[in-house]
Amino acid sequence: MTARSIRGMAAATLAGTLAITAAACSNPGAGASGPAAKDSAVVGIAYEPETLSPLLGYGKDGNSKIFDGLLAFDRDMKLRPALAVALPTVSADGLTYTYKLRTGVKFSDGTPFTAKDVVFTYRTILDEKTNNASKTELAALKDVRAVGDDTVVFTLDHPYAPFAERTVLGIAPEHVAGKQDVNSGPFTTKPIGTGPYVLADWSKGEKITFKANPAYWGGAPKVKKFTMAIIKDDDVRATRLRSGDLDGAILPPNLAKGFKGDGARKTYEATTYDYRLVTLPTHNEVTGDLAVRRALDVAVDRGAMVDKILEGAGKPAYGPVPTDSEWFTKGTERAHDLAGARKILDDAGWKPGPDGVRVKNGVRATFPLWYLSGDKLRQDHALAYASDAKKAGIEIKTQAGTWEVIEPRMKTDAVLAGGGSPGDPDFDQYLLLKSSLAGDGFNNMGWYDNPVVDKALDAGRTTDDKAARKAAYDTVQRELVKNPGYTFLTHIDHLYVVNDRWDGLSTQVEPHDHGLASGPWWNVEDWTPKDAGK
Amino acid sequence: MARMAGRRALFAVPVLLVVTFGVFAVAAASPFDPVKAYAGTAGLTASQENLDQLRANLGVDRPLVPRWWDWLTSAVTGDLGDSSVMRQPVADVITERIGWSALLAATAFAVAVLLGTALGVLAARRRGGWLDRCVSSAAYTLEAAPAFWLGLLAIWFFALELGVLPAGGLTDTASETVTFGQVASHLVLPALVLGLSQLPWFFLYVRQGVADALDEDPVRGARARGLDERTVLLKHALRSGMLPMLTLIGSRVPELITGALLVESVFSWPGIAAATVQAATSVDFPLLAALTVLATAAVLLGNLLSDLLYGLADPRVGFDG
């Protein structure tokens, strides 16, 4: 073969590829032929759970398909009874929570559910031999005991207002899970619960198949079969949705856009508590300076980030609480104000140096900002933030790394982090801002230390009085304006594209973490197939 | 022949020992933290006390040598330990998955060997002809194309544009039971992609081997004696032209394993490869060690196989290796 013929062939191949690509652009969607049965649904998700055992953390935030908690969240993240007949009665000192249990509920193997199972579940999670990484969430719990078959009493170490929100975690059957190794026994992959669905099959790395539980205490679900296909790659997921293999999927904004105007599918935008922020470590001589922190807080153009990076699917963030939440403190929104930022820095003595970067007492206004490598969204946020800061005279050097690289540097280097959990303002804010948690794992990454905030955080979690709690979290959010420990950038909407074949679809306010339960299928047990005729 | 196999088996024992120790040593030196990997996103809000407890429970704070020794002694008795990342015994992880990987790899291998040989012979027969030029260029292009990219292209073309083949999974996503027909249709694309990614090597070797053989005296002699083209090509040229390819069969095994890694993940194929990646990034010692032993054994067996085949195909080569 001659060099010429190789070149010719390469050119032909390239031309062919281009032609194919061009054809793809002009031919969006090869029809939306959904999978056959009306009473089955197949959705594509990006993350596979490691386990389906609630004892190891599955479904700890509620609406697990296989298990029920004592309580559950409704669409608006309000608590409603599930395995309990009513919300708990709380003692005056806030230390005792009493739950009356629903009677006549059975596990899917036919065994009755009793208070013993509740006690077993909580005690097992708290047991130090149990490898449950979320047990910190139950740190306030001292003891749990059964009173008869239908009453459970929780005793707390200290008053903890959002404790009831923690009791949405699934209840495991003692007669099955209690007889095997809790960390690796068969129950972790072949669970038995009281929930609306039972596990039909879990082909790891491929899919999880659920069958409706005909004896579900809340009524048998209309969607008889529900399958979650695990497809990590965003493009493959979009492709399989388009090919009709999937009925619905979570997609990033740019891919979801391709389904706009598709009559057979609807796009759902779930609002979230999922924020992106920049930590401003107090141990760094630049970010530790109050003037720098305040200047960055107003120099950043959050609106542009929402428009350009999130393609409109999100909101500017001014704190951990999204602006449309009832816990948000009105009036703490900060407008993009570059002149204001410059003035704050001028007044504090940060004078522009010869290269435009400000200097104060020989310290150049420069610091590193780390983001998780491979995370495009975080990279875009980091670059936009650095470019906004530069206009105010602060130089930010963005660097990509894995958590292994980033973690040891968190005390002094800024990090582009994400987080957020709805349910209760305490969940995020305490871990993010409490000074005693500085440097404890990934808690309080910025080593924020503000006595006013500390006091308000304690007040917020120890009282059950809604107005008092609101006042406490108002204090926290106002303090964050005066002394921002983090620059909050955006709250990100999660996008789902789903075939328009059912009624009853909605989305919950979602956490940072996309669990199995997130997405319009949070209540697939309540969906009903749309009428015949199609 | 039996002696060679026996000697190789003996030799495999120290190799496997060294490899498993290497896996433990490399994993212990890696910057990945098994506790963080185990905890996942929950680890981001867990307290240090909780993480320390996990570290002790998982036994990952122990020194390298005793940990390896414990693993080894229980592995010899048949207990492969528990996989922390999969939350189940290692033996279960492997038995659930290895069959599907073996099916995929074997089919792909058959595609690569059979198609590669056939095309190689045809191309060698008329070197410089249109078939030779087309297939050779395609082979060079394929050599450079990552299996991942081929997979996405195949999904786009066959599943999306033509809609004739499923885009992924072991069975239809909505189907609950694993039937032969389902698996067969779902196997086509991944096996074809994996096979095609291996094909160039077989094709190019056979083409070269057969072409060289055609120029050799015995073949020219056979032609001169008036034997028909078919006999010359298949009986004489192919036989000696196949020799280098037999070595290749063994040496392609590692490539096949790494190729399967990417292909399995593109097609959501529930094989062992995805588990390997997870085990490595989560520093899941028991699972990683078991899988490495399997992969090493596959490579050693591949080499043994190619040497045996070589000995059988060419009487001039003995079995003493």
TrEMBL record, chain A:
CDD domains: PBP2_NikA_DppA_OppA_like_19
Signal peptide limits: 1-24
Gene3D superfamilies for the chain: Dipeptide-binding Protein, Domain 1, Dipeptide-binding Protein, Domain 3, Periplasmic binding protein-like II
MF term (GO), any: peptide transmembrane transporter activity
GO cellular component, one term: periplasmic space
Key word S-adenosyl-L-methionine present: no
Keywords: Signal, Transport
Domain annotation Solute-binding protein family: ranges: 78-435
GO biological process, one term: peptide transport
InterPro entries xref list: Peptide/Ni-bd (IPR030678), SBP_5 (IPR039424), SBP_5_dom (IPR000914)
PANTHER family in the record: OLIGOPEPTIDE-BINDING PROTEIN APPA, PERIPLASMIC BINDING COMPONENT OF ABC TRANSPORTER
The family this protein is said to belong to: Belongs to the bacterial solute-binding protein 5 family.
Protein name per the record: Solute-binding protein family 5 domain-containing protein
Annotated source species: Streptomyces kanasensis
Automatic annotation (TrEMBL), chain B:
Subcellular location, record wording: Cell membrane
GO biological process, one term: transmembrane transport
Bilayer topology term: Multi-pass membrane protein
Entry-linked Pfam families: BPD_transp_1 (PF00528), BPD_transp_1_N (PF19300)
Source organism, top-level taxon: Bacteria
Transmembrane stretches, start-end: 98-124, 145-167, 187-206, 285-306
Record keyword Transit peptide present: no
A cellular component annotation (GO) from this entry: plasma membrane
Record InterPro entries: BPD_transp_1_N (IPR045621), MetI-like (IPR000515), MetI-like_sf (IPR035906)
UniProt record similarity statement: Belongs to the binding-protein-dependent transport system permease family.
Name of the molecule in the record: ABC transporter permease
